[in-house]
Amino acid sequence: MERGSFFRRNLLVLISITLIFIIINVINMRRPTIKIPKPQKPPAPCPSLVSEQTITPLKNTSHFLVSAYMDQRGKDFDIRIIGMFKRDSIQPLHCLFCCSGHFSPTTPATVLPHSDHFGFAFCATDVLCKIPQNCDATHVTLLTEPTPEKAYNQAWLPIRNKKEKYIFNFTVCISNLFGDYNNVLQFTQALEMYRLLGVDRVVIYNTSCGPDLDRLLQSYSDEGFVEMVPWPITEHLNPSPGWLFSEHGGDIHYYGQLTTLNECIYRSMERSRFVLLNDIDEIAMPYQHENLMSLMNMLLEQRPNTGVFLIENHIFPKNYFEPSGKFHLPQWSGVPGVNMLEHIYKEEPDRQIYHPHKMIIQPRLVEQTSVHEVIKNFGQRYKVPPEVCRLIHVRVPLRGLKQDQLTVDNRLWDFQEKLILNVDKALKKVGLL
What is the pTM of this model? Predict the structure, then answer.
């Protein structure tokens, strides 16, 4: 009996263990399988060939790209690319964006050559692109075929003006330095005069300048007052030293001046309230205000819908000197360039013929510009009376008048004390005094 009981107990234990294993297996069979997701591959990065140049050849074309900017003032486009295109070989192009690391679908490009080209083969050109939906675009390029696979060897442009806000009241755009320009004294006087007039930033496009001026500009750049933009146009084109093809020849007008002026407008669009487009030997001088912002506040109060203010050019011939010589300062005798304080005799403009102006603009109200007038703009244009503001432009004579036919204008002398002090300081800083 004891042996039988032993076997019965063991059999019951074995049956219980077996039932437990069966129940566990049934439960496991009914439990849903949990799949651990495989790590997703990150999106394929856009090509790493991002252009760091200010002039970028566009592959498979005769054209050149300069920069790309957000521009959402129109309904049909989001991006404006500034370029230099050969007018006789403009073909259909396609916009391709880098969107958070991956390619977008291509969108058709709208190519807009500027109407002012003065007969040259190349002209300033805008290319308008629409960003596809759900694309956080960071870079853009242009293709001759609507196939993104062709983009791997393309140079991409970073998209600018995405998150900038006004940090300057007034910017001056100086379109081009070339020909080893070394007019150091006049350049320094102009920069320091603009600083006294309340300018925050001067943007200069530099193809070449003399060694003394190069040292000076580097100093101003280091302190942040001047923004130097390299402009190596001679590496890509044969730029003209003049404005008319029939007289000067070359590939493009005046070292690409129209392209740089337009580029500077968009460079400044989201960071500066006002932009002055002129040359370094010109000063936009207010005659009823102590600085340019006071002038603009008054003009906008009178004409609130105006985006373009035309400033009349007045020439001060550099061959006529103020007779007393009181500003023929000995410390400047070894500095190359023109001393503007010595030239107070002014030609009166002949308004019976075309007389050029330069412009102070609100950059968000301008689409395209030429040298002396805008091509496309929003809002109104206004010619500022010369008794309110005019250009002091010290250069070779235009009309060939005799000295007794000229008018005395010594407005610069109102600033002479601070101006001389600041010019001396700038020149000493770079070892030119």
Answer: 0.88
Q: Which CATH number fits domain 56-160: 1.10.10, 2.40.50, 2.60.40, 2.40.10?
A: 2.60.40
Give the separation between CA 39 and CA 125, rounded to whole angstroms.
46
pLDDT in tens, 207-242: 999 999 999 999 999 999 999 999 999 999 999 998
Q: At what angle do helices 211-223 and 416-429 cross, to 10 degrees?
A: 100
Burial level of 241, CB count in 10 A (0-12/13-18/19+)? exposed
Q: Count CB atoms within 10 A of the CB of residue 61.
A: 17
Domain spans of the chain, in order of start: 56-160, 168-429
Torsion angle in degrees (nearest 10) through CA of 397, 401, 407, 408? 60
Contact 174, 205 (CB under 8 A): yes
What's the rounded mean pLDDT across residues 149-170?
A: 86
What DSSP element (H or E) covers 284?
strand 282-286
CA dist., res. 388 & res. 284, Å (int): 11
Res 182 pLDDT > 80: yes
Amino acid at 33: T
Nearest one of 148, 204, 195, 146 to 175, comparing CA atoms = 204
The one-letter amino acid code at 185 reads: L
